[in-house]
Amino acid sequence: MELRQLQYFVAAAKAEHFTKAAQRLNIVQSALSSSVRALEQELNAKLFVRTTRKVRLTAAGRALLEKAEIVLDAAKDAREAVSAVAQAKSGKLNLGTVHGLPAFVDLPFLLARFHKRHPHIDVRLIQGGAVHLLEKVRNGKLDLAFLPMFEPPADIATVTIACEELVVVCNKAHSLASSQVVSLAEIAAHAFVEFEQDLGTRKIIDDLFLAANIDRKIAFEVSDLATLMELVGHGLGIALVPESVACSQPQILSVCRLKEADACWEVVLASSATSGDALPRRFEEIIGSDAGIEV
């Protein structure tokens, strides 16, 4: 049983005439008659009583008409729902972001712009570690995720959306406060305030020290940027953070640049490499128009 057969059947039932029904459907009468006969054979029931002037439904035909209209209405709703999602008129967009997303990625602003442009799209946002979020992208539970730069697997597509230099931040009374430029070796002797494993800039900074074969002391591990900055502000340690974050509290914090030029906080937008969904692309367009990035 096909939708086309039900469509032809309902048209004939409404018109009570095969020729008129065929004309309304813009098909030849023989095609409609053939479709109805095939439907009767499949159901093993006579659906119409045929006369020379008109056709009328049998009891079986009346029973089928009620159900056929429900099926056709549901099919129409399904087509409209799919079309609305494809045109970004409705649907759900699931986003993920690492904790401590840097200030140069203004996610609330991007979400507000997206909502203004697509007010009927439901947006869900979660925070988590990079590994956790990446796994959700891979299994389809997230459409897009803001993550630190990484080497993506074959099934993940990424585009760099932001990059900012990492600088040393410390309390103004700290011994490094008067320094303008410091090296990894110099700052390794001081206590660090860091994100927990897999959060924020932790992997980037760990990789910097690992590549330089330098050990460091981590005194505090936190899960959010605000706590990290408060601990540094109270003189309990130093931290490496994006420059825009470091300069947000000039009254209590001092900033030192690193001699190592490759110390930067890069943010990528990760998505499934095989997904052709329209909603993630619409959000990427918002990011591209805001930052001048081709995504």
From TrEMBL:
Gene3D superfamilies per UniProt: 3.40.190.290, Winged helix-like DNA-binding domain superfamily/Winged helix DNA-binding domain (1.10.10.10)
Domain of life: Bacteria
Keyword entries, A-Z: DNA-binding, Transcription, Transcription regulation
Coiled-coil features, chain-numbered ranges: none
Keyword Transcription: yes
Keyword presence, Transcription regulation: yes
Residue ranges of the TM segments: none
Protein name per UniProt: HTH-type transcriptional regulator TtuA
Taxonomic classification: Bacteria, Pseudomonadati, Pseudomonadota, Alphaproteobacteria, Hyphomicrobiales
